[in-house]
User: Which sequence fits this backbone?
């Protein structure tokens, strides 16, 4: 998962990618560290989704701009529009189901 460090880079990706998942976390958050590989495993089922990570400790401006006040956080953008927003208590099963519905509508 590529790390994004600036609002400009993230904005460009949001506007260029059909589907973009943004994972907000940091290395000192044990839940974030534990959840990241599980999110990556889910994304293997959706090869057309580009995924990036924002390390909140290093990129507070990005977190602020996207109203991320707690981590871990996941945003899914489809055609530049925020479609899914989850933070803190994230059900991976729920995220997988929601991504699957949007992915199938968009690509099938």
Assistant:
């Amino acid at each position: 998962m590529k790390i994004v460090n600036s609002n400009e880079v993230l904005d460009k990706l949001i506007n260029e990618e059909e589907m973009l998942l943004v994972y907000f976390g940091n290395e000192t958050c044990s839940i974030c560290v534990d959840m990241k590989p599980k999110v990556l495993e889910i994304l293997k089922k959706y090869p057309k989704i580009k995924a990036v990570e924002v390390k909140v400790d290093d990129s507070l401006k990005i977190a602020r701009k996207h109203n991320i006040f707690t981590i871990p956080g996941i945003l899914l953008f489809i055609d530049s529009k925020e479609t899914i927003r989850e933070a803190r208590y994230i059900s991976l099963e729920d995220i997988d189901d929601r991504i699957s519905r949007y992915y199938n509508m968009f690509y099938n």
Notes: Residues 28 and 57 are 9 Å apart (CA to CA).
